[in-house]
């Protein structure tokens, strides 16, 4: 089945140790998003790619970066994780720019723990 | 202006009852209103969505009611089942030209009791 895949599902890192989270999709969608979701909160958009164009949210810390080497893959890099970065990280995709079908499809998320 | 307000924060409903979650928005530029269902440890999944030119949309036991003049929309879950126990997020979006940016409500934790 076409889907959004995130790896790993659980990631443990140490304070300050760089970590990379991976997202891949088989939907052939041109837009990919990264969200941070903390416990009992709504997902918060960090940034998104429209094709290769990178769009950063104004309040996303510089500590968070992203790469999209091709249509299918997108990576979230956290350069120096702090305790406050412990969260669920969600990848989502959306398709052609038709506002009435431009639905975002979410992956299962990566749960990041910072020790 | 981008905020979407959602209530209640939590909801307990008896099996077979009706669950109602309400959302309100300010930004009249929003033009698509999806609802997402999220189970613990999973990503949000699209449940149902509505456009502002439609006042009601029904899919199975799930219905969205939309009041454009009041800038309010709500999710009704008929014949609620224990399997519906999850967190529900309303959302609103504006097509920006570079992908649609979802503005989420704060979420409602629904528990359906036997």
Structure overview:
The complex is a heterodimer of chains A (115) and B (114). Chain A is built from no helices and eleven strands. Chain A has strands at 4-7, 10-13, 19-25, 31-37, 44-50, 53-56, 64-67, 73-78, 87-94, 105-106, 110-114. By secondary structure, chain B is an all-beta fold. In chain B, the strands form two sheets. In chain B, strands 2, 4, 5, 9, 10 and 11 form a six-stranded mixed sheet that branches. Classes of the chains: A mainly beta (115), B mainly beta (114). The interface between A and B is medium-sized, with 29 and 26 residues.
Give the number of DSSP strands of chain B.
11
Largest β-sheet summary of chain A: 7 strands, mixed
Basic shape of chain A = globular
How far apart are the first and last residues' alpha carbons of chain A, in Å?
Answer: 36 Å
The percent of residues in helical segments of chain A reads under 10%
* Oligomeric state as shown: heterodimer
Helicity level of chain B, as a percent range?
A: under 10%
Q: What is the helix tally of chain A?
A: 0
How many angstroms separate the termini of chain B?
Answer: 40 Å
Write a compact overview of the structure shown.
The complex is a heterodimer of chains A (115) and B (114). Chain A is mainly β and 115 residues long. Chain A contains no helices and eleven strands.
Write the layout of secondary structure elements.
The complex is a heterodimer of chains A (115) and B (114).
Chain A: E1 4-7, E2 10-13, E3 19-25, E4 31-37, E5 44-50, E6 53-56, E7 64-67, E8 73-78, E9 87-94, E10 105-106, E11 110-114
Parallel strand pairs in A: 2-11
Antiparallel strand pairs in A: 1-3, 3-8, 4-5, 4-9, 5-6, 7-8, 9-10, 9-11
Chain B: E1 4-7, E2 10-14, E3 19-25, E4 33-38, E5 45-50, E6 56-59, E7 62-67, E8 72-77, E9 86-95, E10 100-104, E11 108-113
Parallel strand pairs in B: 2-11
Antiparallel strand pairs in B: 1-3, 3-8, 4-5, 4-9, 6-7, 7-8, 9-10, 9-11
